[in-house]
Amino acid sequence: MNIYEDLRALRSRLAWWRVAIMIAFGVLVLRFWQLQVVRSPTYERLARANHVRTLSEAAPRGLILDRNGRIIAENRPSFNLMLEGDHPRTLKSLRELVELGEDAESDEAYLEQARMGPTIVKEDIPLEDVARIEARQLELPGAHIQFVPRRYYPAGPVAAHVIGHVGRISEEQLGQDFFSGAERNDYVGQSGIERVYNGMLMGRNGVQRVVVNSLGRRERLLEQVPPIWGESVQLSIDMELQEIAETAFADLGGAAVALDTRSGEVLVLASSPSYDPNAFSGSFNRGEWLALVDDSSHPLSNRPIQGRYAPGSTFKLVVAAAALEQEIVSPETHKYCSGSVRLYGNTFHCHRGGGHGSLNLKDALAMSCNSYFFQLGAQLPIETIARYAKQFGLGARTGLDLPHEVDGLVPDPEWKKRARNEPWYAGETVSVAVGQGSVLVTATQMARLAATVGTSGDLYRPHLFLRKLPAGVMPESYADSVISPPSRKVGLRPDTWRALQEGMFRAVQYGTAGRARLQDVVVAGKTGTAQIAARGRIEESVDARRPEHLRNHAWFIGYAPRVNPEIAIAVLVEHGGGGGAAAAPIARDIFQAYFEKKQERKLERARQTTMAIR
Length: 614
What we know:
Elements (H helix, E strand, L loop, with lengths): L2 H36 L1 H12 E6 L6 E2 L5 E13 L4 H10 L9 H10 L2 E4 L4 H9 L7 E10 L7 H4 L2 E3 L2 H4 L12 E3 L2 H5 L1 H4 L4 E7 L5 E8 L6 E4 L3 H11 L4 E7 L5 E7 L13 H8 L9 H4 L9 H10 L9 E3 L2 E4 L2 E4 L7 E3 L1 H7 L2 H10 L2 H10 L21 H8 L5 H7 L10 H12 L3 E2 L5 E5 L18 E2 L4 H16 L14 E7 L4 H4 L14 E8 L6 E7 L5 H4 L1 H30 L1
Parallel strand pairs: 2-10
Antiparallel strand pairs: 1-8, 2-3, 3-4, 3-5, 6-7, 8-9, 10-18, 11-12, 11-22, 13-16, 14-15, 17-19, 20-21, 21-22
């Protein structure tokens, strides 16, 4: 047997092994080349990211001030508990240290967010919890305390619907241009002035770049760009008047609006009931939110601009203006009131059962005689009434710088055909002539109507914004109102304006608005009592004895002084009964406070002048 023949098979196997080893070696070399050369920048970037982290510092929002420089929205220090990275043990330890509440998310939900970046585990934690976590920081990799300037409203619920509130930005808002510059977890304006002027108030977040170790603990600070405060916003609101208006409502629902007749600046915008916007600044659990939303008194509704109500007899000013301009009556035209009027086969009742007797237009306004205006309603086409109502801006948004203002409604045949596919009936015009039927207005529209009558046609766009102030500027009082040109003029004849003004003057002197009268200042006004239920349901009952939801709404609109007015007011009390009894006293309190403050300022200026001379 040849031994070399026996080794041929062995040599063949060894050759194959050599080839296999060389191929494996080649693969290893290629893999090392891929890792060390091709993917080197990627791994270098990941290593740096794991070593240096960028943290955002929330910018304090700018202040919101009233016209006197009083702070109505500021910031307070607070702390959030944050978690970053995949640290289930840390989260378990945090649950043992801090009460996360019933609405806390599941551990997996927290961890899923924390893997994407810093996430809030609990907001606005108390100082005791902060101290407890800081003391055990070495045992809590990935967890840290974040300092956050949190919104604070010193007056609580006062002017809450004007100021609005803030809330954490939603995923949907993050993509909107309106909130450009905001980051995840930031608080942004969600309603009111906070939302409308969010861009001024928000400021710019700062940045920290810190070195962290393999457990996610901070080692040192590399770089810091401090946050920039937002600008301050000064409003036309007078918080003293606002508090007086809201206090006057007590537990009643309704709205009060006071405007400067020379500029359209809003002095008061009260909505009752109110809510505390501070609740939205911190951790707001689901139970608290549902309690607020489900409250049957609807405290979140901004009634001065979102509540639509029948204007009742305050609408008689519009009907009187239309009748005078169309020369259907003169200011001295007399009509007889026997307590009711028979028109189109129906009997329409005056609020005074025994009737007012014979009276002219000015006294019909003063006494709020329904019979007089029922007869005017039979003489005026609905299109004419609607045209004059729209000239006064009724049924349309005023343009006030707050979100979600509603229109109201001035009905006419075209609207009824479009909305209900029905023709207009003459009897409906009779109801509209006393502010009933389908006509709907807001309290802000009615305050502007009063201002327009008082100034003989100057119609302004109501506004709250006065000016913005740079961050860090000390709050100061805004200078007294200056006369500015109106947005437009309502063109009626001088005799028409004088008749409307005289009717409102008489209403306060000896008519239905006597409870708005002041001792030292002449007030002009008009009351209204708007039915909210069909007459068949309430005919046999006295208003005060009805279930609350069937009682009439109470209105007062007016201005003062009678000559060269400075302030115009509209007050609406839901289910308050008669306008003279329920709404006029609230307006009187606001008028009185306004003129007392004005007198105090004059005395203070005189005192300072005297001291300067000495």
